[in-house]
Write a structure and sequence with these properties.
The chain is of the alpha/beta class. The protein is 39% helix and 22% strand. A hairpin with a 3-residue loop joins strand 11 and strand 12.
């Protein structure tokens, strides 16, 4: 069974997938009052029908459902699209929550939950999805060249003209990749955290500044007067060098 309410075309269109009618109906009533368009589906198969016929902005997905569970649908959605996903989980489903996040869900909320908390999470996930700059290509580029450097994405190695590999921490590699995939774009600290760390981002700005300081020491000729990673006071950072692929 599929049911849609609301008629504001400019509103975000949310899909609520849960086998419990009481939860579906209560979420429909609450979220519709906040000007969201809501479509309800009681199973993974019903959700697929909606996704084929409607433009959905965010999926609220229950993990535990009869038949096909929410994790299976989450895996499928993330393999084929970037639609934001918020998982609904029970207190005892910690392992499933972790698996869901590893599969690429954007957030989760534990049952029973306060609808106001869910609303806040929906707004945060949509805001992040709508403001995050798009990268030039999907990850997995074999090599990226900039200035005198080459980053081998597959090996996660940085090398200079002498071809000697320079070690990068995971954080440094993710940060450099974020810049190389978005050259010239001014990225705020929050955006860099979202790109490199996702939902587990550390909730304070200084961690990004420290990572950038360490990265500058490895790629800048003069880290105290950086030319590749520029600081925009009050606005974040941008990568100024031309980036080419090989």
């Amino acid at each position: 069974m599929i049911k849609e309410v609301g008629a504001l075309q400019e509103s975000h269109h949310l899909l609520v997938v849960d086998d419990q009618k009481e939860i579906r109906d209560s979420l429909k009533a609450y979220l519709a009052r906040h000007d969201y368009r809501i479509t309800l589906a009681e199973s993974a198969n019903a959700a697929r029908k909606v996704l084929k016929s409607s433009a959905i902005d965010l999926v609220i997905l229950d993990i535990m459902m009869p038949g096909e569970d929410g994790l299976s649908l989450c895996r499928e959605l993330r393999a084929t699209s970037q639609i934001p996903i918020i998982l609904l989980t029970a207190m005892a489903e910690e392992t499933d929550r972790i698996i869901g996040l590893e599969m690429g869900s954007d957030d989760y909320i534990t049952k029973p939950f306060n609808p106001r908390e869910l609303l806040a999470r929906i707004k945060a996930v949509l805001r992040r999805a709508n403001t995050l700059p798009q990268q030039r290509k999907q990850p997995g580029l074999p090599c990226l060249h900039f200035d005198q450097w080459m980053l081998d994405s597959a090996r996660q190695e940085l090398s200079g003209p002498d071809k000697v590999a320079i070690p990068l921490s995971t954080g440094e590699f993710l940060l450099l990749s974020a810049f190389l995939q978005r050259p010239g774009m001014v990225l705020s600290r929050d955006q860099l955290l979202d790109i490199t760390r996702g939902r587990d981002a550390i909730a304070f700005d200084r961690s990004v500044d420290n990572q950038i300081s360490r990265l500058r020491k490895k790629i800048e000729k003069n880290p105290k007067n950086p030319k590749l990673i520029k600081t925009h006071w009050g606005g974040g950072y941008s990568f100024t060098a031309e980036v080419t692929e090989a």
